[in-house]
Amino acid sequence: MSRRAALAGMAAMPLIGCRGMAGGLAAPASAVPSPLNSPATPSLNALAIRGGRRFGSAIASTPGFSGAGSIQNPAYTQIVKAECGIVVPENEMKWQAVRPAPDRFDFSRMDQIVAWAQANDLAMRGHTLLWHRPQWFPDWLNTFDFGANPVREAERLLTEHIRAVTDRYRGVITSYDVVNEAIDHDRHDTIETSLSRAMGSPEAVIDLAFHTAREQLPQGQLVYNDYMSWEPQHAKHCDDVLRLLEGFRKRGTPVDALGIQSHIEMFDIDPATGVGPYDEAGWRRFLDEVVGMGYRLLITEFDVKDRALPADIASRDAKVAEFAERYFDVMLDYDAHLDDILAWGMVNKFNWLQGFADAKREDGLEVRGTPYDSSYRATPLRTAIADSLTTY
User: Fold this and answer.
1) Closest alpha carbon to 222 in 209, 204, 239, 238
2) Would you state the pLDDT for residue 66?
3) 219 in Cβ contact with 166 (< 8 Å)
4) Dist. CA 215–CA 223, nearest whole Å
5) Alpha-carbon 217 to chain mean position
6) N- to C-terminal Cα separation, the chain
7) Residues with Cβ < 8 Å from 344, sequence gap 6 or more?
8) Helix, strand, or coil here: 185?
9) Are 370 and 351 in contact (CB under 8 A)?
């Protein structure tokens, strides 16, 4: 039983929000009034802080550079400043952005976000020091000539990169997704890259990344970040991640936390629940094993894929909110282990899912998976997140 269910059984008053007196989902309008100008409505970050964590979002430096809303968009930044206590760059820290050549760094876009965040009293996370997939390496790294001593040259490139980034943002960023998405789910093993071929194995690369980050950030939070989720089709992915985490512990790799991206998805509908199929028992077993190994948890990239839901906005938004609230109720049952919660964008039209082939709707309509709609109005999803944060 979740803590919400236990509290509901003991409470004399019903929960306030998108769940009604009987525990079912109320039928909300397509959007609820914006809480931004209402002092009586706590921000999502204020609610998160009550539980000892922060709420935040991805953000971009310039329009079009990534899917997230930009610091140059006043309507978007109004929402971020009102709702968030922490932000993360969507693409501006990745190798393609900061290292256009092996002998050159370009921090201009990332610096813009840092300056904006500091001016607005927002903390920052780092994403990512190494996205361990060839398709997200810069072209020069995929074709790099590692020379007569490939191990030493690969080690130099990787440690030089991590030191350059962490030195530049020392004292500003203390939590990093050190490695992102390192598993090949066809092979059920770690991904081979130009770096891993030079160094002898993917594990050698990943371990060096974490050890270098620890040297740089003795008190920092070092995170392995991946997209496993609670839907049944993710079960093997969860198993792969557990093996990777077990390997870290056996080898003494300094990993502090698992970043759970939480791009939760409704590609089908479960007739029993009316929302997307999910395996709560299996997901809890996974989380139990993760925290049992001593890892902290973060929700790093939350949004909702609504492909199986009807076109009608009111009913679609209601189901998105219900599915998300079910998910947050499970995750917040692990509140003793759960740190910050970040959405991967706050406004629908700037969310990466609009351009992601696997998430696009067959009817061509916009994916409605973020807390605010494309008119910058709060949606029932925002209420669902607030309800869960309030309960826990």
Assistant:
1) 209
2) 64
3) no
4) 15
5) 21
6) 14
7) 57, 58, 68, 90, 261, 263, 301, 302, 303, 351, 352
8) coil
9) yes
Q: Which CATH number fits domain 25-391: 3.90.1150.10, 3.40.50.620, 3.20.20.80, 3.30.200.20?
A: 3.20.20.80
Whether a cis peptide bond, with omega within 30° of 0, leads into 128 is: yes
Closest to 300 in 3D by CA, of 89, 2, 143: 89
- Cβ neighbours for 45, distance < 8 A, ≥ 6 positions apart: 54, 55, 56, 83, 84, 85, 86
* Confidence (pLDDT) at 67: 65
Q: What pLDDT shows up at residue 68?
A: 73
What are the boundaries of each domain within the chain? 25-391
| Nearest-10 crossing angle of helices 202-216, 150-168 | 40
Residues in the chain: 392
* Residues of the chain under the 50 pLDDT cut: 1, 6-30
Site of tokens 């692990």: 334
Gap between the Cα atoms of 105 and 181, Å rounded: 23
Distance CA 93, CA 96 (A): 8
Residue type at position 325:
E
- Phi, psi of 19, deg, nearest 5: -95, 135
Which residue type, as a one-letter code, is found at position 145? D
Q: Where are the alpha helices (DSSP H) in 84-226?
A: 95-98, 108-119, 139-142, 150-168, 194-199, 202-216
Report helix, strand or coil for 180.
strand
* Rg, C-alpha atoms of the chain: 21
pTM (predicted TM-score): 0.91
Q: Are 335 and 49 in contact (CB under 8 A)?
A: no
Cα–Cα distance between 35 and 80 in angstroms, integer? 12
* pLDDT on residue 21: 24
pLDDT of residue 160: 98
Start-end of H helices in 254-361: 280-292, 313-331
Whole-number pLDDT of residue 14: 29
In the block, residue with structure tokens 């066809």: 186
